[in-house]
Amino acid sequence: MVDPALNRNPERALRDELLSHLARGDIRRAGPTAERLVERYPDYASGRSAFSELWLRCGRPDLACEQAERAYRLSPDSPEIVAQYAKCLVFDGAYRPAEQMAETALSLEPDDHTTLDTIGNVLSRAGRQERALAVFQRALAAAPDNTTALYNLATSLRFFGRIEEAEALFEKILEIDPDDFQALHSRSILKRQTASSNHVAELEQRLASDPPWPASSHVGYALGKELDDIGRPRDA
């Protein structure tokens, strides 16, 4: 039986299909889906915005900006769409316009962590680190257990030398998702480990379990760094 909601919102269904392909990293299927989406619904702002994300994944920020700008013209009051336009601009090297667009997105009072994370990352890339930190804090407040929000804030805190706070956030990520190997790696490089305080045994155990790549890469680099920190360069 066909979901009646899909009949009412076929453009949204097609956009969601595109976003699903992107989430899985399936660019081969995402491309044709995006083409169908904008061909059938050329004035659907969310469709254009999703297409811009596909172009970013393909390494074409110039074409991403074209789609994102069209989305912005169609829906200038959407924080999510404005934030995506800012993201495309910053990846295209247009730092000042990206910063301005990020501030525009903030003025629309977004309350979801995804949009706030996007804005925070744009501001960080544009060199507005203090402003980015405040936005990442808002993102985490909106989703206290979201690992992306936790990671972005931890990384921002690290920039300001707030190491203990950052470490606590990386530890929280690993409590939520023990297999978040990027957080595992970041925890190790956050500071110089000592003989009395390190994660060597844990990392050795993880590496011995033969995790898949790229998890093994993250664990290996983390273990090598910590072994070097505690005076075991040969083992490192």
Describe the structure.
This protein is globular. 73% of the residues lie in helices and 0% in strands. The mean pLDDT is 94. The termini are far apart. It is built from 14 helices and no strands. The chain has helices at 4-8, 10-23, 27-40, 45-57, 61-74, 79-91, 95-107, 113-125, 129-142, 147-159, 163-176, 181-189, 200-208, 215-229. It has 236 residues and is an all-alpha fold.
Structural category: mainly alpha
Radius of gyration from the alpha-carbon trace, in angstroms: 21 Å
Written as H for each helix and E for each strand, in order along the chain, the element string is: HHHHHHHHHHHHHH
Please give the number of β-strands. 0
User: Biggest sheet, open or closed, and with what strands and sense?
Assistant: none
Distance between the termini: 58 Å
User: What is the number of helices?
Assistant: 14
Please provide a brief summary of the model.
With 236 residues, this protein is an all-alpha fold.
List strands and helices in order, with pairings.
Layout: H1 4-8, H2 10-23, H3 27-40, H4 45-57, H5 61-74, H6 79-91, H7 95-107, H8 113-125, H9 129-142, H10 147-159, H11 163-176, H12 181-189, H13 200-208, H14 215-229
Helix pairs in contact: 2-3, 2-4, 3-4, 4-5, 4-6, 5-6, 6-7, 6-8, 7-8, 8-9, 8-10, 9-10, 10-11, 11-12, 12-14, 13-14
